[in-house]
Write the structure tokens for this entry.
Amino acid sequence: MRTRFAPSPTGPLHIGGVRSALFSWLLARHHGGKFILRIEDTDQKRFVEGSIDLITDALSWLGIDYDEGPGKDGGYGPYIQSERLPLYQKWAQWLIDNDKAYRCFCTPERLDQVNKEKEARKEPPGYDRFCRNLSQAEIEKNLAEGKPHVIRLKVPLEGQTTGQDLIRGEVVFDNNTLQDAVLLKSDGYPTYHLAHVIDDHFMEISHVTRANEWLPSLPLHLLLWEAFGWEKPYYAHLPVLLNPNGKGKLSKRHSGFSEDGKKVLVLAKEFKDAGYLPEAVVNFLTNIGWNFGDEREIFDIQEAIARFDISAVNPANSAFPIEKLDWMNGVYIREKLSSEELAKRLRPILENAGLEVNVDRLLKIMPLIRERIKSLNDIVDLAGFFFHETFKPPTAEMLIPKKMDKDGTRKLLEASHARYSVVSETEFLTTPLLTIGAGLVSDLGLNNSQVFGVLRVAVTGQSISTPTFETMEILGKDESLKRIQIAVDLLK
RNA sequence: GGCCCCAUCGUCUAGCGGUCAGGACAUCACCCUUUCAAGGUGAAUACACGAGUUCGAAUCUCGUUGGGGUCACCA
């Protein structure tokens, strides 16, 4: 088995592209086959410099490795279509020689005109096949005059073309609804239709998995395979990923737009930048349109490979359930990563936020933060205070809890300072600290949340944070007392 | 509009003639609790509609409606 992912280098990789790549990859890996990356850069106008790196970077971040592709020759290269031009031209000519295709000299202007007239007559748009029956003499003449032309497929005017889709079964099309599609453009580049058939043939691709939007052109491709007399691959058209609200397909133009106040992510890189783990993204994606089999949703990629079955893919399109990714990312953070691993991934994020990371301290706070963050990026807000060079004190307002006043709060802090300052440094640990806190509660006639809350704000500078006494232990006696003192002064 | 695909809780899904229609996310309530989380328990919520076929339909057929895709010298 050989499968492929064949993106166009028109910019950063889209999450829908990732999903297609992932399913093709899963299919190949399940069967112990090969997964090939092929770059379809036959549209010079849309080519974006640097796209190929963006694509391979994204795949590598996600762990979707390819066996053959640009820079990784497997004997079927080159893997970039613009480097295969002579091949397409040769076979396009072959189609003409065998009466399966014809040269079309119609200008874009004429094509426009034809469509306008058809529209006026309320007919479906499409090429009127003006050049399909040009005489040999006319063709010679046009050629001699050097008229630019394209090569079009000569589709049968009647009958039906039946395709088999691995996901939805038989799909039937009436040939009279088909177009004489352009195979080779006037600039000598092939269109997708021609290029993918030729490449999939010579690269011996056995299973073509691609997005659902290709289904309408399946009959064209089938006709092409038949014209060449080559053995067809199996086709599987993956359901489309829709916007989170279910309206329209997820596309690049929605990227970054806010929807119901929520951010819509669509580029692979945006998921990385948002603090999602690649393992979680991959796990999440495999649960859309496919399921593990029992009721498990969290599983690692090896388990997915072992069970993957392309024919079990749900043919229905699905809205992109981004909120489920948030949950799943949290599961991975709190259950799947060791402290060392988590710290390793958190470190660059803290550093990018301009904080100076003390690795020992970072490792120490892992138990305090791992159940509190859903995105790696959450670490900055939740625990950034551990790494601030200079402590950012809270405001007096944050310090004073409801049902307490300024004086009362100050007295509480002063009492705390007094009691904690007599604790030895080696005893400055969570449990004794908590005991003292509890003593404060009963002695001052306050409740837990008042005392612990005030201490939390004083020590962390924020009202939502890691647990108070654990935090104090990690901060150490000096630092903790210093911060409590700052709070006292703030309330004077 | 033509053609093609699709249709189970708000969302992702299980189900492939007989189930109290299951799970997960999200939501809500309660419990736990040093904030926030996490965790625990529980609640609410779905077979788009209409005809058939059948002893029996979420499951099969047809139609309707709805949604999506596609109609380029883009992929």
Notes: Residues 15-30 of chain A form the longest helix (16 residues). The first strand of chain A starts at residue 2 and ends at 5. The mean pLDDT of chain A is 94. The two ends of chain A are 76 Å apart (CA to CA).
